[in-house]
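FW: tagging you since you asked about this chain on Friday. Here's the raw sequence from the shared folder, copied in full. Didn't touch anything.
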Amino acid sequence: MAQMKSKSIAVFNSNDIYPISADSTMPFEQHRDIFYLSGADQEETILVLFPDAMDKKHREILFVRETNDHIAVWEGTKLTKEKATEVSGIETIYWLSDFDKIFFDLMTEADTIYFNTNEHYRQAVETQTREDRFIEKCKKEYPAHQYAKSNPILQNIRGVKEPEEIELMQTACNITEKGFRRLLGFIKPGVWEYEIEAELVHKFLRNRSKGFAYTPIIASGNNANVLHYIENNQQCKAGELILMDVAAEYANYSSDLTRTVPVNGKFTKRQKDVYNAVLRVKNEATKLLVPGTLWAEYHKECGKIMTSELLGLGLLDKADVQNENPDWPAYKKYFMHGTSHHIGLNTHDYGELKTPMKANMVFTVEPGIYIPDEKMGIRLEDDVVIQESGEPFNLMANIPIEVEEIEGLMHA
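HL: got it, structure written out here
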């Protein structure tokens, strides 16, 4: 609200419940912006912020779907007005059925309306959302108002995490650790990728996670060279590595882990050499995540570190580097994705990328080396919190990553 223009109003809508077909729907997932701002984790909820409202009680309003005994029997208890205040801290609660009338009255006092468009750099949404429909309706009904964007403000404030958010993310990481440690005693030649997925989801749910923070990648052998391999339907064979990009959510907050382990519990010399090269890149890249770092420059530096390791492994030679295309450096043949992204309520979270990094931003660090000719792909990933001074704090510091520890636990 402090960053809004004078005489302006901002509106945030819940997500729809998305249909599958017949009477089936996908499980409800709250729009992360309204959840972040209000804590309301219920469908058909609208948050209205109007700092200059003439009536003080209309400066923050939450509209919720009116509940009744029938809804309680079929769907379970919904938010009452009292419970909505308890959850959100917002005193003024109205039923959703009153929205159009109250909103019209508020808009007579406002000059500008903030729309909550999705401007995330990875967005590729084709579905018309509840937010989209609201914006379309608003433009028709209030053509004389000015429009502004909520997204830049949200990128700014959501990118820097509060202590409570970091605590929830630490819990998500701790649940992920329990799942990964369970796997180290389970993986052996002959297991199927989906059996590994089942072991993880068992551990996650038992620790009060809703499950995976994102679609799990469990990629044995050459499957690891498909960056978004999600079929998880192949048998794991002795001599192969298995790359697992798998992590738990907790209270709608994501963790994001990748580990690569030998199916038979023992790395070959070549596997160990490539693995340790990736680990060194991860460790060096982590040190660069400090306040003031620019994301684009950081990725260039990570590329230089990776180039050095690839030269050491014999995957590149000096001529490859000298003759490289600056727009697609030589190292990209073996490491073609970015090293870090914001993480929080979304796995690829909101957060500014074109301005200097700030303390309490949380980033993944996830270098990889992919060698299809050797049927080997290795990626390692942790989640780290930028500190005011010194190296970032690793939320996954307790999750095994060194070769010796992984081999020891797999043979315990």
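FW: The chain has twelve helices and 18 strands.
HL: agreed, and The first helix runs from residue 32 to 38.
FW: great, closing this out.
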